[in-house]
Amino acid sequence: MNDKTATAKAHTNIALIKYWGKKDRELNLPTTSSLSLTLNEFYTITAVTEGKEDTLLINNMMQDPKRIHQFLDFLRQNVGDFPPLTVISRNMVPTSAGLASSASSFAALTAAVAKYNDWDLSEKELSRLARRGSGSATRSFFPGFAVWHEGTDDESSFAEALPATDLPIALVVCEIAGTVKKVSSSDGMMRAMTSPNYAAWVEESKQQFEEMQAAIAAKDLAKIGELAEKNALDMHALNLTATDRRFTYFNQMTQDILAKVKELRQAGFLAYATLDAGPNVKIITSQDQAETIQAKLKEAFPKLRLEIATPGPGFSYIKED
Ligand code: DP6
Q1: Which of 19, 67, 68, 319 has its CA 20 to 30 A from that of 113?
Q2: Are 36 and 139 in contact, with CB atoms under 8 Å apart?
Q3: Domain locations in the chain?
Q4: Of 11, 136, 139, which is best to mutate to test ligand 1, by the most ligand atoms within 8 angstroms of its C-beta?
Q5: pTM of the predicted model, to two decimals?
Q6: How far apart are CA 65 and CA 70, in angstroms?
Q7: Beta bridge partners of 212
Q8: Is the distance from the beta carbon of residue 235 to the nearest atom of ligand 1 less than 6 Å?
Q9: Does domain 5-165 have CATH number 3.40.640.10?
Q10: Pocket flag, ligand 1, residue 188 (CB < 6 Å)
């Protein structure tokens, strides 16, 4: 057996304009283009080496390899054959933070497998391939802000970085212990698509996607926050109005934090909320206000775990010793 190992690192990302629906489940094509911020503090490092069968270890714990086995088979059939792999991942994404660890995980895995096989792939190609593992992974190869173009087919649905900016944006991540029954993002978005309001959200999202890029270019943090909050809250309203098993990711704490964010804003702070497939609120703010906002949240909710995140780098390969 070959003892070659390839290791890659990818950071997770938070969508400011969300991906919440698939127009093609097989190809994992989204119904909307989305826009994200890569986060410096949260990442995954993944090493792959030959094994007897595809296996997955995350933070030293054996995991069900079904999802990555399917993805590895997709790569074997579409890019080039390779032996069974042992996949060893270290996830520096707090599990309760409700940040999509599948984004950094599938991006790091795609890059590690490409390196293992000496595939000479562009970032665009890596992004397209990772999309088949998890949509949000498409955006996790790039530093700072990234856009995932929805595209119309396998070829045209990929992400790329927006021009670099020194925008002092920060995120205060509120970690609420999960008491809500988990609905996976894949299942949640399929249900949301049955909302009578879905088409209107898609339409508005198209406009918000353009406006968000303009707000980033203009370094208008308040506008970025305003657009992101509206896009996210309207996305969560789709879950509540789904005709197929409507649901919500919110719990009481979510509501209380959202009220606090509004209160902070009324008091003159730069604070806007966004949420993904879970109850946790992420507060969009500026780097110079992040610690004050963190302290205010801690004062109001002493049990809450809070972390500050800032813009992060693109993916990288890690040299084996
Ligand atoms: C709410 O990327 O986890 O975080 O493609 O089915 O794996 P799959 O979905 P996933 O969905 C992420 C949804 C989201 C919004 C976003 O990241 O854009």
Answers
A1: 19
A2: yes
A3: 5-165, 169-309
A4: 136
A5: 0.96
A6: 8
A7: none
A8: no
A9: no
A10: no
Strand, coil or helix: 168:
coil
Q: How far apart are the C-alpha atoms of 166 and 168, rounded to whole Å?
A: 6
**C-beta atoms surrounding 134 within 10 Å:** 23
> Of all protein residues, whose CA lies closest to atom 8 belonging to ligand 1?
134
- Token pair belonging to 311: 């813009």
The CATH code of domain 169-309 reads 3.30.70.890
Ligand 1 neighbour 134 (Cβ under 6 A): yes
Q: How far is the C-alpha of 319 from the C-alpha of 10, rounded, in Å?
A: 14
Residue 182, token pair as written in the block? 């988990």
Q: Which atom of ligand 1 is nearest to the CA of 135?
A: 5
Q: Rounded to the nearest whole angstrom, what is the distance from the C-alpha of residue 19 to the centroid of ligand 1?
A: 6
Question: Using an 8 Å Cβ cutoff, are 114 and 80 in contact?
Answer: no
- Tell me the two tokens of residue 236: 């969560």
| pLDDT per residue as tens digits for the range 14-34 | 999 999 999 999 999 999 999
pLDDT-based confidence at residue 54 (cuts at 50, 70, 90) = very high
Mean pLDDT score of the chain = 95
Distances (CA, A) of 196 to 23, 49, 228, 248: 16, 47, 22, 16
Is the pLDDT at 179 greater than 70? The verdict is no
Count of helices and strands (H, E) across the chain: 8, 14
* Residues whose CB falls within 8 Å of the CB of residue 148, separated by 6 or more in sequence, listed in order: 19, 30, 33, 34, 35, 36, 127, 131, 135, 138, 139, 157, 158, 159
First to last CA, the chain: 19
pLDDT over 70, % of the chain: 97
At 321, the pLDDT band (50, 70, 90 cuts) reads: low
Q: Which residue has the higher pLDDT, 93 or 11?
A: 11
